[in-house]
């Protein structure tokens, strides 16, 4: 295991958790103990036990990671949201984070002095790929439509996760139409282009990661300088590793 540390300037740290595999009752009790009452109420409102579990682990993941880099007690951390509902950490303006969870997996991205967005998706979940025609740009929809066989599903989720990560980084929610920007997701270097100008913005930087079969993670950050994306596996309150945790 490695000791968690605050990302240096120009670094984005991305932490992946196999939430569905965490079942130790003592660990789950520790997770509940570190959450705020409002977080517990929100987690407990889910009807499905798997959703309650994923919400609990996800929120514990955020508190664990930020507590490690701030050297604060996890339960003492205070969070708020902007007018569009994006969470932020109160009292530590240099720390930026974003959380995503889906189908038993949770991901948290941490960085310094730059808004960050992250999205994780399960490639096996039932999805009508024709929604690309309604929500993607015409350029992206054409890419998905022309993709052969299994490549179609892969390309759809490549684009979908990038779009989600970008919107979450901006922090304005779905007030930004999904078809107002495009990704060249089938290229080596990921770029975003905006429909109103037809221009790319090189300050937006993106990364995609497949931590295990069937999962894809996308991260977005806007920075005038090049950034380095570093990936880690994590079990909250157990440890962090550059390799899959047991």
UniProtKB/TrEMBL annotation:
Q: Which GO terms describe its cellular component?
A: cytosol
Q: Which Pfam families match?
A: AASDHPPT_N, ACPS
Molecular function (GO) terms for this protein are:
holo-[acyl-carrier-protein] synthase activity; magnesium ion binding
Which GO terms are recorded in the biological process aspect for this UniProt protein? lysine biosynthetic process via aminoadipic acid
| Sorted UniProt keywords | Transferase
What domain of life does the native source organism fall in? Bacteria
Which residue numbers delimit the 4'-phosphopantetheinyl transferase N-terminal domain?
30-108
| Cross-referenced InterPro entries | 4-PPantetheinyl_Trfase_dom (IPR008278), 4-PPantetheinyl_Trfase_dom_sf (IPR037143), AASDHPPT_N (IPR055066), P-Pant_transferase_sf (IPR050559)
In terms of SUPFAM superfamilies, this protein maps to: 4'-phosphopantetheinyl transferase
Domain 4'-phosphopantetheinyl transferase as annotated: residue spans = 115-213
Q: Indicate the family of this protein.
A: Belongs to the P-Pant transferase superfamily. Gsp/Sfp/HetI/AcpT family.
Q: What is this protein called?
A: 4'-phosphopantetheinyl transferase superfamily protein
- Tell me what organism the protein belongs to: Desulfobacter latus
């Amino acid at each position: 295991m490695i000791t968690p540390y605050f990302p240096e300037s120009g670094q984005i740290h991305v932490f992946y958790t196999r939430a569905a595999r965490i079942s130790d009752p003592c660990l789950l009790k520790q997770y509940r103990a570190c959450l705020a009452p409002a977080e517990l109420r929100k987690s407990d409102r889910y009807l499905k036990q798997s959703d309650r579990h994923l919400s609990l682990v996800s929120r514990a993941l955020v508190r664990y990671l930020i507590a490690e880099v701030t050297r604060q007690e996890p339960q003492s951390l205070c969070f708020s949201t902007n007018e569009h509902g994006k969470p932020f950490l109160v009292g530590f303006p240099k720390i930026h984070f974003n959380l995503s969870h889906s189908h038993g997996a949770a991901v948290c991205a941490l960085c310094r002095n730059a808004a960050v967005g992250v999205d994780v998706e399960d490639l096996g979940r039932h999805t009508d790929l024709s929604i690309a025609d309604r929500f993607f740009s015409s350029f992206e929809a054409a890419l998905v439509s022309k993709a052969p066989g299994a490549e179609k599903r892969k390309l759809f989720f490549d684009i979908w996760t990038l779009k989600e990560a970008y919107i979450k980084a901006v922090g304005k929610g779905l007030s930004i139409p999904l078809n107002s920007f495009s990704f060249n997701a089938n290229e080596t270097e990921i770029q975003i282009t905006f429909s109103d100008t037809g221009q790319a913005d090189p300050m937006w930087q993106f990364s995609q990661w497949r931590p295990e079969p069937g999962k894809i993670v996308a991260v977005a950050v806007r920075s005038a300088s090049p950034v380095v994306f570093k990936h880690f596996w994590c079990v909250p309150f157990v440890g962090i590793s550059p390799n899959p945790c047991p």
